[in-house]
Amino acid sequence: MHVDLGNVLDTTPGLTEETLDRLDSRVADAHDRIATGMADDEFGYAALNLPETADPDAIRAATDQFDRLEAVLTVGIGGSALGAATLANALESDVDAYFLDNVDPDAVASLLDRLPLDETVVNVVSKSGTTAETLANFLVVREAMAEAGVDWTDRTLVTTGEEGNLRALADAHDLPVLDVPDGVPGRFSALSTVGLAVPALQGHDIEAILAGGRDGMESLSGSLFETPAYAYGTATYALAERGALTNAVMPYAESLETFAEWFAQLWAESLGKDGLGQTPARALGATDQHSQLQLYRAGPPDKLVSLIRPTERAETEIPETDLDGLAYLGGSSLGDLLDAEFEATEASLAAADVPNLRVEIDRVDERGLGELLYAMEAACVLYGELASVSTFTQPAVEWGKKAARGLLGGGDFPEADAVADKRELRIDGS
Ligand SMILES: O=P(O)(O)OC[C@H]1O[C@](O)(CO)[C@@H](O)[C@@H]1O
Question: If you measure from the C-alpha of residue 136 to the centroid of ligand 1, how many angstroms do you get, rounded to a whole number?
């Protein structure tokens, strides 16, 4: 993987090479803190050890127990779903992967109607074991399995922490269970049991994913000029400090669309603290050239764009044509066209003085994905050190959880009372 910072120099907002040189001493200090946290397996920093501490044999021992495998249905939310979804949606497999990471009754019913439940493994994932959406969906899925005459205890894999409802359920029914590693927040758990059980069930090379993570781990150093992850984390931090409060993440590969969703949780939940942070906007190239690019180029100078692509991709030749004005496409390929659009968008942003970073991996394969996930996690941790925020906690999400629980009679929470006090200014339609 490499990162190219050329298009953040002298843009609006922008950096200079002197600024980057000056920041590099802060990067060295931040790296020392990160290295200490990794060495001591400290909460959060432990995630950056996963390429070494994850146990692929334990993952396979749990997943190899399942036969008759046509599909895997993951029931989880946030970091308990997005890492696995990033990997599943980026890699081809004969085993279909589905994710229930929301409690929309129509979507849940529609999916359960379609799934061959007797040939599906239900992969229920929750670090806490108490997340309402995950537990509610699991209860609905289990009921559907019973109604389909499927013994749910034969088709369920649990991934959870040491305590909580799911651990108790797994123990009570002797279910295959994987441990969520200690000290790893959900959004940093892609390279652990949480993110790797699905690719293992789909027949992917999870050792290669971890090898990619090791590539990222081995590139960590005391300088942003030697570590792509730190270059990305430093530049995005410094641009945020200068007003780039939105980071539009725009992969030029459909296979990386879910990666942008995973990145959004990682970036927002880690860095959105104490009035600070950088809003991750999810985009997709080339599609969003016909959508959000207008805002990125001609809207407020308050954003940066992260352009991500594999340098090797399929070709798919475009047939020759005599259509007026389109003959230039004939004989080219869709891959060439997508790469031309990537470079054209990059140049168009630079021409409009909009800061943009190029992130390139060789291929969207297990190793490339492992390195990309690891690098963005390390970039996020580095950014958090530079911004002096508490990167690994997410206290702001708790208020809404209590309010929702109170509304459903799950306890006496003042947050739920506040819901009743909503101010109203209704404008009614027809
Ligand atoms: O794995 P759990 O405990 O169900 O949590 C799911 C998600 O909810 C959060 O805790 C936020 O509520 C995320 O940080 C986490 O990824």
Answer: 14
- Which residues neighbour 180 within 8 Å (Cβ) at sequence distance 6 or greater? 125, 127, 159, 160, 161, 189, 192, 193, 194
Nearest CA to ligand 1 atom 11: 397
The CA distance from 387 to 385, in Å, is 5
Cα-to-centroid distance, 300 and ligand 1 (Å): 33
Complex-level ipTM beyond the 0.85 threshold? yes
pLDDT at 68 over 90: no
Query: Domains in the chain, start-ordered, CATH in brackets?
Result: 2-36+211-387 (3.40.50.10490), 55-180 (3.40.50.10490)
Query: Torsion over CA of 20, 251, 83 and 121, rounded to 10 degrees?
Result: -170
Assess contact for 46 and 182: CB atoms under 8 A: yes
127 is a catalytic site residue: no
Residue 352: per-residue pLDDT = 98
pTM above 0.80, yes or no: yes
Q: Give me the residues paired with residue 282 across strands.
A: 249
Sign of CA dihedral 257, 259, 262, 266: negative
139 CA → ligand 1 middle, Å:
18
